[in-house]
Amino acid sequence: MLVLTRRANESIVIGDDITITILAVTPSGVRVGIDAPRDKRINRAEIVVAVSDANREALQAAADEAAESLLLDALGRPGTGR
What we know:
The protein is an alpha+beta fold.
């Protein structure tokens, strides 16, 4: 990981097409501006993690439901939708 010290109104350039500018530094946080092409996805890390977790939970719930349905079908019990 590259660690840099920047002050307000100073920038970091990534490649030829991404510029990150420190807009303000306050006691509650740092305000950052990102100038990048529209085809580049820019997301906060906590959003990426939350979406990934939600997708994983949805997949698990679907797999659990499918397994339960297969088991009920195999046992020939009511609730199979037949």
